[in-house]
Specification:
Distance between the termini of chain C: 33 Å
CATH architecture of the largest domain in chain C: Orthogonal Bundle
CATH superfamily of the largest domain in chain C: MetI-like
Strand content of chain A: 15-25%
Structural class of chain C: mainly alpha
Structural class of chain A: alpha/beta
Number of domains of chain C: 2
Number of helices of chain A: 12
Largest sheet of chain A: 10 strands, mixed
Chains: A alpha/beta (about 300), B mainly alpha (about 300), C mainly alpha (about 290)
Strand order of the largest sheet of chain C: 1-2
Oligomer: heterotrimer
Order of helices and strands of chain C: EEHHEEHHHHHHHHH
Distance between the termini of chain A: 95 Å
Shape of chain A: globular
CATH topology of the largest domain in chain C: MetI-like fold
Chain lengths: ~300, ~300, ~290
């Protein structure tokens, strides 16, 4: 047999070995190497920094990030890492032990009482309309009518003759739950034209649509209106929305922003938690346009 | 007779061993690359299976509506919305991409072609969030003037089309470049007008590449998340007009995942699985058409 | 072919040419619009301080230096992981397997499906596989690896295409000289295909830089200067997302970051082009233009 034929025969016989067997061995080797890349062991070797992982709602994440940075400046040797991912992930990760603190932008539910919580800030919820909308306020009944689809034109509530564009929040958001709870509208009955995820999206939508009405965080709305966004906060009956009114308790619609954890906490974390609820932290809270809960 | 027979030499010759090493390494890498999809499928299945086993797969199309808190998981309106968005985006983007590719490959001077190419490349680098932001502040208010609420299927189609234009253009350009210049020269020699050369000769010659460009563009469009989340209105309904707000399946996953627990979370993974099936169907169609064309050419 | 001559003027040709140029102009205008918005809003914010300082006040002031570093890290990790895989896939698709046979079809299909998976699903997959199972946590490494999975189809497709177009003449010449298949591949076709490979890498880079959801779930949210690839670090696109949807008053800096991202891409593209030109000169002794 000449080398060419030997070569061809060998090709056929060794196809499996070449294309399946050897690659499988390589992959096994690669997997073994990758599994050695383990963050936990790295942490044990350099025990100089204590790592605290905080996971949860993206609404609170910027605030906690800033608080963490300020705290670390005073306390070297601790590293607080903030990750977003939603209130649900915050609760899941605290329960499974992956995270030490969870950021939850609502009150804890009855089935979540296995976790402790610390109130960090409050966030008022107010109704906004487009700046060009002439109405001066809405009563509770009018809001219920608009959001259940009974009232469909602005002229029925004292405005111009144009159909109302109703903006509401996505299911699962605490803002929606508080809204539907306060006005007594089951979420299935809400007839919206646009559903948004974040406050900023709500503000942008209402600003771009003259006939729109929506509900967002009062702090953000005040700030954006100041900066020239085409929106206006409107009073609800006799309740005037403003961060001051929420702080004093005059304005009723607000949600709690919490840090949740499983007891017991280590000392550094307890210290950070205390810092987050101190008067110093109040400045950070106001800069994020939330309402501080410290006196 | 020495021990070094032809057979032995052929087996251990250095080039043969080098060949072994090279091709097995390539096979391993290719296997790894192909395995990723299967890993993703396994992942989606593991997270969603409990829910599918609970009520059967049909319930995701026949339930009362999308009320995940009340265990009602009808995804039909969202699947339709995703499909309409993809088809609409393709319909808008393909002629535009084709036009740009034809102009840059055949008609424009080298300088202009280079500038256009860079423009297209730059557009592909703009993050989806920025497209969404721009869409909410520029496109949605314009659509709003026409017909409130502005955030609608139309806005989504326009912006997703804009986003897949670079994808389709780049691939179409490569396809057009592989058309032999002999075809174009022959057509000119025969006195065929420019437009007819391009329409009747060049495009058919490159149609396999153009088609695969469209398939890739469609795959990109169907997977688009951020933009449709920001400009489509997110109402779960089957759209009856271009101005109706819709919620795409991808946007739904992004919107609800941060706040979903238990069965609701599993249903979002089912949605991911459904997306995978849709894309596979799309790819299968593309592959089938490609095979037919290959048979026709060979 | 019938002619539509009216007054010695080919109407059909005129109409089609008009349509073609009209469509091109529309497309160019539409592509330019968002770019101009980014440039217009971003230039007001961009400055050397912006590029070199750390973010302050939740990103509303200060700069984006740590974020640029994290982004570069993520991009490098993803390219390092994806290039060998894409090369292997491309080589097997063009030279190794029979293009009409079942291994090649499975490979092609799995790549195409991979290309269409929504970024959210990739993010969750990456979180589950790289962050949890392989215990990398929220890190640049996890983000880079997940991103590698995302850019694999684009990269593999470009590589395969440029290898295929390297021309039968090169392959035949190599075979005629008695070179083995892999020698022809490595020493002849790859150098010739380098411009195409370079274009493919840049295309994959642009896709990688523009991704948001994937990186939010895998490389995380931290805006600190990362100290290693195992640290969490947000990419520029995640930063833009946070600033524009989550932080009141963050929009101006979001546009500034977007502009910085485009500049970063231009820089990376230039580097890749220069690198491939150098490689080609080393491997073949001269450079060729795009096929």
């Amino acid at each position: 047999m000449c080398p060419m034929e030997i070569g061809e025969e060998m090709n056929k016989k060794t196809w499996t070995a070449r294309h399946v067997g050897v690659p499988a061995l390589w992959m096994l080797g690669a997997l073994l190497c990758l599994s050695g890349c383990n963050r936990e062991t790295d942490q044990k070797t350099e025990a100089k920094a204590v790592r605290v992982s905080v996971v949860g709602a993206s609404t609170i994440a910027p605030l906690i990030s800033e608080l963490a940075k300020a705290y670390e400046r005073e306390h070297p040797g601790i590293r607080i890492e903030v990750q977003a991912g939603g209130s649900a992930r915050g609760i899941m990760d605290v329960r499974s032990g992956t995270a030490v603190l969870g950021m939850v932008s609502r009150e804890l539910k009855p089935e979540e009482q296995d976790l402790q919580h610390a109130l960090i800030a409050k966030d008022g919820i107010g109704m906004i309309v487009n700046k060009s909308n002439p109405i001066t306020g809405l009563t509770k009944e009018q809001v219920v009518g608009i959001y259940t689809g009974r009232i469909t034109n602005w002229k029925d509530v004292g405005g111009d003759d144009s159909p109302i564009t109703v903006v509401s929040k996505a299911e699962g958001r605490s803002t929606l739950e508080i809204f539907s709870g306060f006005f007594g509208i089951p979420y299935k009955d809400i007839r919206a034209h646009v559903i948004i995820g974040d406050n900023q999206q709500g503000i942008q939508t209402v600003a771009g649509s003259p006939a729109a009405v929506g509900y967002v965080s009062i702090g953000s709305a005040e700030y954006e209106a100041d900066q020239g966004a085409a929106i206006r906060l409107i009073p609800l009956g006799d309740q005037i929305p403003s961060t001051a009114a929420v702080a004093s308790g005059e304005y009723a619609i607000s949600r709690d922003l919490n840090l949740v954890y499983k007891a017991p906490l280590t000392e550094p974390v307890q210290d950070f938690l205390a810092f987050a609820r101190s008067n110093e932290a109040a400045a950070f809270v106001t800069r994020m346009y939330f309402i501080p809960v410290t006196k | 007779m020495t021990l070094l027979t032809d057979e032995v030499v052929a087996k251990v010759h250095p080039t043969k061993l080098r060949g072994w090493a090279f091709w097995s390494a390539m096979s391993m890498l290719a296997l790894l690359g192909a395995a990723i999809v299967f890993l993703i499928v396994a992942f989606l299945l593991s997270e969603s299976f409990p829910l599918i086993a609970q009520g059967g797969p049909i319930r995701f199309f026949t339930d009362e509506g999308w009320w995940p808190r009340d265990a009602s998981f009808n995804m039909t309106p969202m699947v339709l919305a995703s499909l309409y968005l993809t088809i609409g985006a393709l319909v808008v983007a393909t002629p535009l991409s084709l036009a740009i590719s034809l102009v840059t490959t055949f008609k424009a001077p080298a300088r202009l072609a280079h500038v256009l190419h860079n423009l297209v490349e730059l557009s592909a680098a703009v993050p989806t969030v920025v497209y969404g932001l721009w869409g909410v502040s520029s496109i949605v208010p314009i659509v709003n003037i026409w017909s409130p609420p502005g955030a609608s299927l139309l806005a989504g189609v326009l912006i997703v089309a804009l986003m897949i234009i670079p994808t389709i253009t780049v691939l179409t350009q490569s396809a057009l470049q592989t058309v032999p210049t002999a075809y174009v020269q022959g057509a000119t020699a025969l006195g065929v007008s420019t437009s007819q050369t391009l329409l009747r000769i060049v495009i058919p010659a490159a149609r396999q590449g153009i088609f695969s460009a469209m398939v890739l563009g469609a795959a990109r469009a169907i997977g688009e998340t951020m933009v449709v989340l920001m400009v489509c209105g997110n109402i779960v309904q089957v759209p009856t007009s271009l101005f109706d707000p819709v919620r795409a399946l991808t946007a739904n996953i992004a919107l609800e995942m941060p706040y979903a627990m238990g069965d609701h979370r599993a249903s979002l993974f089912v949605a991911g699985l459904l997306m995978l099936l849709l894309v596979s169907a799309l790819v299968a169609v593309g592959e089938w058409v490609g095979m037919r064309q290959r048979k026709m050419i060979s | 072919m019938r002619r539509f001559h009216v007054f010695g003027f080919d109407v059909r040709d005129f109409v089609w040419t008009f349509v073609m140029y009209g469509l091109t102009l529309t497309a160019v205008a539409m592509l330019l619009w968002p770019l101009l918005t980014v440039f217009g809003n971003g230039l007001q914010v961009l400055s050397w301080d912006f590029l070199l300082a750390s973010p302050e006040d939740a990103g509303r002031s200060g700069g984006i230096a740590p974020i640029l570093v994290s982004t570069l890290g993520i991009v490098l990790v993803s390219l390092t992981a994806a290039l060998p895989l894409a090369f292997g896939v491309a080589v097997m698709l063009t030279e190794g397997f029979n293009p009409a046979g079942w291994p090649a079809t499975i490979l092609r299909c799995s790549l195409d499906i991979l290309a269409g998976i929504p970024s959210v699903v990739f993010g969750l997959f990456g979180l589950s596989l790289f962050c949890r199972q392989l215990e990398l946590g929220y890190s640049i490494l996890a983000g880079g690896l997940t991103l590698a999975c995302m850019i694999l189809p684009t990269l593999a497709r470009s590589l395969a295409f440029s290898l295929e177009s390297a021309g039968v003449a090169h392959r035949a010449g190599g075979a005629a000289l008695g070179l083995s298949k892999q020698s022809v591949l490595w020493h002849v076709m790859v150098p010739v295909a380098l411009p195409g490979i370079c274009a493919g890498v840049v295309l994959a880079l642009t896709r990688a830089l523009a991704e948001t959801a994937v990186l939010l779930f895998t490389s995380g949210y931290s805006d600190r200067m990362p100290e290693s690839v195992l640290d969490s670090g947000r990419s520029v696109s995640v930063h833009i997302y946070d600033l524009s949807t989550n932080v009141p008053g963050g929009t101006p800096n979001a546009y500034g970051s977007a502009l910085a991202l485009l500049l970063l891409l231009a820089l990376l593209s230039f580097t890749v082009h220069a690198l491939t030109r150098w490689m080609q000169r080393r491997m073949t002794g001269n450079t060729t233009r795009s096929l």
